[in-house]
Amino acid sequence: MSRALPSIGVVVLSMGNRPVDLTIAVDSALAQEGVELDVLVVGNGWEPTGLPDGARALALPENLGIPEGRNVGAAHVTGELVFFLDDDAVIPSTTALRTMAERFARRPKLGMAQALLTATDGSESPGRWVRRLRKGDPRRSSPIFSVTEGVTAVRRDAFEGAGGWAGAFFYAHEGIELAWRVWDQGFEVWHMGDVEMHHPATDPSRHAVSQRLNGRNRVWLARRNLPVVLRPLYLGTWTAVQVLRDRSDRAALRVWFTGFREGFAEDPGDVRVMSWRTVARMTAHGRPPIV
User: Fold this and answer.
1) What is the 3-class SS of 96-121, one letter each residue?
2) Domain boundaries, the chain
3) Calpha distance 156→224 (Å, rounded)
């Protein structure tokens, strides 16, 4: 009897503003070999049409934000693994998802993994795509404590155990929280440096809404996940980082601090304070949850 193929639900979230890129992204997912696929395009505030054969569509009547849109998609696909693909990303190899699935099968403690991202046009890839303090060789695999979200695979049980992406965040930092919560269940999160995917090397969003949400969600990360004694250390570190980054743009800093204050004034939602064992594991890997 032949062994069943690994099953993967692929969620592609899109606002419908990149139809050509979306088609390429979906085609690259459908081309994957050696896996059983369920590919779903989630229209965040629009109804996806004209999709490649083999892909399903789910329309959301309004833009729910990136993390909640992906949560809805995950609930509507089947698969032992859920793979989240940006609508402008490309999977260049037809065996990439099979390789990732085989790693999960061999390592029961692997809860989530991010592929190596390289620039679509061959230019230098942004350092932020390698989610570790010591970037080094991007093709070196290693444990990580944050993911870039758009080329990420996760065990369904680990995803559901973490409560999914932080839907309340709407945008920014949900990849940190999900990684922390996967680690807190006793799993590991890895950067797979030998599984490559492509993405345009765009600049991170700097408009006022993103700046405000960046500040607010940084506070919510601490309030939702960290032991009380670590919260001021974490927030102090990242406030210093933000001030250094935006020291020449006072308007941007004002917006960030507006969001920062909102993070204390508003209800952060789902609180799941990580265990001290998780803090110790993170620290042992060189990334204590204060940076």
Assistant:
1) HHHHHHHHHHHCCCEEEEEEEEEECC
2) 7-199, 208-273
3) 22
Superfamily name and number for 7-199: Spore Coat Polysaccharide Biosynthesis Protein SpsA; Chain A (3.90.550.10)
**Percentage of residues in the chain having pLDDT higher than 90:** 94
Q: What's the pTM value of the predicted model, to 2 decimals?
A: 0.96
> What is the C-alpha separation between 248 and 259, in angstroms, rounded?
19
CB 267 within 8 A of CB 220: no
Amino acid occupying residue 133: L
C-alpha span between 140 and 148 (Å, rounded): 16
CA dist 208 and 259 (Å) reads 10
Instruction: Name the burial class of residue 208, with classes exposed (0-12), middle (13-18) and buried (19+) by CB atoms within 10 angstroms of its CB.
Output: middle
* Identity at 66, one-letter amino acid code: I
pLDDT in tens, 20-66: 999 999 999 999 999 999 999 999 999 999 999 999 999 999 999 99
Mean pLDDT, rounded, for 136-146: 97
Q: How far is CA 175 from CA 7, 114, 151, in A?
A: 23, 10, 11
Q: What is the per-residue pLDDT across 218-245, written as a single tens digit (0 to 9) for each?
A: 999 999 999 999 999 999 999 999 999 9
- Amino acid identity of 146? S
**pLDDT at position 272:** 98
Q: Residue 78's closest CA among 113, 107, 35?
A: 35
Instruction: Give the chain's count of helices (H) and strands (E).
Output: 9, 8
In the chain, which ranges are E strands? 7-14, 36-44, 55-60, 81-86, 110-119, 142-143, 151-155, 188-199
Look at the chain and count its residues: 291
